[in-house]
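Incident review: delayed structure delivery

Summary: a single-chain prediction request sat in the queue longer than the usual turnaround. Root cause was a stuck worker, restarted by the on-call engineer. No data loss occurred. The affected request and its eventual output are reproduced below so the record is complete for anyone auditing the incident later.

Affected input:
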Amino acid sequence: MSTFGRSIALTIAAAAVSALPVMAQSIVPTGQARFISGSSSSTTPDGTTNTGLLREEAPEGDFFGWTGMLAVPGFIAGTGTQDGGFNGTDTIVLNSFAMNLGGGNAPGTSAESQMRNEFTYTFNVGNGAQYTFDLNIGCAGPGGPPNTTNDWSLTAFLSGSGGDEFRFETGPQTGYTLAVQGLTGTLSAGSYTLSLVGLGSVSFIAIDSGNGQGGGVGGNTPVMTFHVEGGEFPSCLADLGQVGGVPGTDGVLDNNDFVVFIDYFFAQDARADRGSTGGVPGADGAWDNNDFVVFIDQFFAGC
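Output delivered after worker restart:
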């Protein structure tokens, strides 16, 4: 596009720069580990059947809502599910989180199955962020007939550069329910990790008679909520970088970002589609004056 064309486009956008407020957020995700994995092994008098590692995980780079389910086959079979994610501004919520493994078989057989359900976010917050944390979930305790195992655990924590802000774990000393309501605290600016991990292992050996075992994990909806107020800082969606047009490429907002954005706009590239609300790329599938308004609003919000 010509220099004249860019100048006209910038003039149109600048005329509308005051049309939208500065959008700020309290949580900025930087990484995640949201997945369900499992494996199983079953033995019959005629041989052994193994099921290698199975895994379902949230799409890389997508921090928003995800619903996952994993089925583990075998004499000891089961499923793991989770549903939740980041709301785009100030809350990470886990709507559901469940696991179950169980089964048995006739004399001369045995089996074992394992499962891991993990919901972990790494994120940044600004100075003086106030958080509220709620958690309600439980798991099966140990026990059962001879020649079986039923081993389940849950761990939830928030950690930063200085160590744990909080940590809750199931076990013989703490019980097998994690019930936390209205826990609050203040965070300094920096990077933090919020995590809930469930582990399950079930096995049986059927020597002279049939045998079996089972257990699981589950909680009320929502299972976990982490909400942050204050400590806000603007998003950096206007940083299109020196090359490649990848947000945050160089960490600097300058005239180059305008040039890259305008080239994307006239090429009808999705990276210039800032949407009708919220400034999320690709939000409405249209390229119009509103995209300039949102981009300039993001630019002057800074990083």
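Verification: The two ends are 28 Å apart (CA to CA).
Action items: add queue-age alerting; document worker restart procedure.
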